[in-house]
Amino acid sequence: MALNPAPTATRPTNPTFDVERARRDTPGTRNVTHLNNAGAALPPVQVTDAVIAHLRRESDIGGYEAAEAAADQVERTYHAIATMIGAGSDEIAVVENATRAWDMAFYGTRFQPGDRILTSHAEYASNVIAMLQVAKRSGATIEVIDNDHTGQLSIADLRRRLDDGPGPVKLVAVTHVPTQGGLVNPAAEIGALTREAGVLYLLDACQSIGQMPVDVEEIGCDLLSATGRKYLRGPRGTGFLYARRDLIENFEPPFLDLHAATWTAPDTYEIRRDARRFENWETNYAAKIGLGVAVDYALSWGVDAIEARVIGLAGRLRAQFNGLEGVRVHDQGQRQCGIVTFTVEGVTAQEVQRQLSERGVNVSVSLVDYARLDLPTRRLPDLVRASVHYYNTDDELDHLIEALPRSR
Ligand SMILES: *Cc1c(COP(=O)(O)O)cnc(C)c1O
Known about the structure:
It comes from Nocardioides astragali. There is one protein chain. The protein is an alpha/beta fold. It has 2 domains: about 20-40 and about 300-405, Alpha-Beta Complex (Aspartate Aminotransferase, domain 1), CATH 3.90.1150.10; about 50-300, Type I PLP-dependent aspartate aminotransferase-like (Major domain) (Aspartate Aminotransferase, domain 2), CATH 3.40.640. It is built from 13 helices and 15 strands. A 7-stranded mixed sheet has the order 2-8-7-6-5-3-4, with helices on both faces. Strands 11-12-15-14 form a 4-stranded antiparallel sheet, with helices on one face. Helix 10 (about 285-300) crosses helix 11. The protein is globular and about 70 Å long. The structure holds pyridoxal-5'-phosphate.
């Protein structure tokens, strides 16, 4: 059933952004209304072409020979990422996803009994599972930092926990933007406190990278993990870890191989000194090259311009939802981003997703099972997640509203 929504009074979003060009570069926009950018964004044709070109090169001249021929492009990926986050290229490891990047830093940290790990309600499920395993093995303890009244991580509570507690804080591991909501945690304020306290700070920037400026100096984090396929619009199966130069040698990666280390004599080895100690030898070169192209492509738009556009679209969508009976928006925080979560009264999130999919609209579902420190504490069920990117249009948002099942 199609209901015509009431005309919205909102003005067109960011009229100066060249959306036409963004969509010309993005073939997928001709097929679907893609509002699952927090799952995996549609790649620009430049990325897809670079990936395919390298696969073809491998097929034409051999895999090792193709890697050799494309060595500059592979190196470019490190420089592009470093440029985007304000780091050095020796501080970047490119790996197969963000979880593995995060793991290499986390499992490379040695915990003693009584060491405290501070984390956030926004934390990603895989990170918490790893913390629980390590806490069980090592005797470290996990504390969840309170949120403030806006729903973002409470700086006052973090300060209190850093100042005082039953043992030393070994690590602050928090998520910048949760997978299940539009919240942006105050990453730089957290960094100011961890620096003052001299405590290690690991930031999960999976959902923030590519949709807003992320600068490791401004934030003050020591380690940062991110993925390629979300707001960066890179290929699937890519991610990276940033590790601060003067700390790299303190981290013994949980796995070593002949790329991460050199076998210097029959009974000795030496671990590399740069961040590539967190990588492993065999890798998907085509995807790695594609990731670099995606980062350069984002830089060509400017991350500030991307953020302004994304925030404009998400704000418009929240306003549209707020005008609908039975629809509730659940995004928290003082600062919000392109992820919009909501429920429709009387209709499960899965059913909303299914009906939208039938109408050519891609959204996803944020499961309670993946957000146990967040959704249950807010007494929320599974949520529908519509995540916008700069190539989305006001017309697409109207289409979502029009295709939405009504509450019954
Ligand atoms: C998607 C996501 C991850 C995991 O990224 P992968 O590349 O799938 O490993 C981690 N943290 C957050 C906040 C995410 O949204």
